[in-house]
Amino acid sequence: MDFASNYTLTIDGAAVDTAERVDVINPATGKAFASAPAAGQAELDLAVAAAKRALPAWKALGWEGRRELLVKAAKAIEPHLDQFAALFVAEQGRPTALAKGEVQMGAWWLKSVARQDLPNEVVEDSDTRQVIVKHEPLGVVAAIVPWNFPFLLAMWKIAPALLAGNTMVLKPSPYTPLCSLKLAELWRDILPAGVYNVISGDDALGPLMTAHPGFAKISFTGSTATGKRVMEAASRDLKRITLELGGNDAAIVLPDVDVAEVAPKLFFGSFYNTAQVCIATKRMYIHDDIYDEMLAAFHRLAKEAVVGDGAQQGVQYGPVQNRAQYDRVRGLIDGARAEGLSLLQGANVPEGDGYFIPITLVDNPPEDAAVVTEEAFGPVLPLLRFSSIEDVVERANNCDYGLAGAVWSKDIDAAVALADRIETGTVWINDNFQNGPHIPFAGAKQSGFGVENGAEGLREFTFPKVIFVPKKPA
Ligand code: NAD
To answer: Are residues 232 and 321 located together in one domain of the fold?
Structure first.
C-alpha cells in the first residue's frame, strides 16, 4: 500500500474521490504536502446508506464473529507501523518515536477492546418469569475526531462501536485526515463493506454529520465549544451522544516531594505532544516551600528541551499542530507579556514558517489571568503558588472544566484525601496520562457528557433491550 499519495475516502468498502480537495499542511514547514478529499452531502449520504445496509449482517455475526474481524484489523496495522508513523509526523507534527507509539497503542487498544463483552443480564428470575436485559447495537454511529491524537482517539470510538454491533462513518479533523484515510483503505479487505466508512472534509462536514437523520449516535471528541453545538444538533432527533471535551487540568504539588525527582515527570505531564493533550496539566499549583526550586527546575528543563521538526532525530517537542492554534497560543503569551506577567522561556525554536513556539512558563500569574482561566492547548504553562490546602482546593475547582487532575506527594494517604476533593473525572497520584481500555474515562462539568472506555464506555454504544420471558406457555 502506498502511504505517500492517493488519499481517498472509504465508502462501502471502496475508494471514492471528490473533485474538491483540502490541503494538508505539515506544521513543521507551514506548507501543504498533500491533499485529502473534501466530502460533502452526497458522499455523506452514500456513507450513511452503506453503513445502514451493512448493519443487519454485522449484527448477525455476533460478538465472537465481530471480535475475530476486529483482532484481524488490529493485526493488519502492525506491519505498517513505520509508514503510519512517517505520515503521522508529516500531518500532525509529533516526533517520530511518539507518533509510532500512538499507532502501536491504537492497534493494541483495538485488540484489547475486542476481548470485552456485554453479556445478557437476568435481572429477575421468579417462578413465573425471567427478565433478561440484552445490550443491542444502536445503529449507524458518527465518529468525529480531533487533531491532537488522531489515531488513538479514533480507535477509542471504532473499537467499542463496531464490537457492539454498530456500523460507523468516521470524520477525522481537516488538519489530520491522512492516517485515518489510509487506515480505512487498509481495512477495505478485512471488514465487510459498509461497516467502517471514513470521509474527510472541510469545516462544513461536521455540522452536516450532526444534522444527518441516518445516525443513531454521535461520538465526539473536541473542544467544549464545538461539543455544545454537537449536543444542540443531536437534540433535533434525539441522537445519542458521547462528548469528550476540553480541560484545564490542575496538578497540586505538596511540599514533601523530591523536586529533582518529580520535576521531569511534571514537565512531561504538561508539555508532552507540545502540550496539545486534553489531559495535560494546564495549571501547576506548587506549594510555597518548594515553589522557587520547582520553577528553577522547570526553567532548566525548558531550556534543555529540543523543539523542532518531528521528523528529525533528537527532537522531543514538535510544532503546534495548526496555524489557528499557533495564533491562539501566541496570543495568550503576548497577552501575558502585555499584562506585565513574568515569563520564562525555553530554548530557541527553528526559524521559518513552521508553527514553533518556545516552551513558556508564566511565574505565578493572578488566578484570573487568561493564561490561567483558558485552556491553552499549547506550550505555555502557569506555575502558581499556594500555601494552604483549603485555598488550593478552592482554586483548582474554580473552573468550568472537570476533565482530570493530579496530586503529587510522598504521603499517599494525604494525596488520596486531597484527590477526593478534586472535581474531575480522573485524578492521578504521582502520575499523569494513565488510562486504559478497561478504565472508564469521563469529563465532569463542561469537560464531557457520557463515558469512553471500560464497560461503561462500551455500554454507551448499546441500548438496553428488556425481554420478559414467561415460565409457562400462554
Ligand atoms: P474542535 O472542536 O475544533 O474539532 C473537533 C472535531 O470536530 C474536528 O473533526 C472538527 O472538524 C469537528 N467540528 C468542528 N466544528 C463542528 C461542528 N459544528 N459540528 C460537528 N463537528 C465539528 O477541536 P480540536 O481543536 O480539533 O481539538 C482540540 C480540543 O479537543 C481541545 O479542547 C481538547 O481539550 C479537546 N480534546 C478532548 C479530549 C477528551 O478526550 N476529552 C481528547 C482530545 C482533545
So the answer is: no
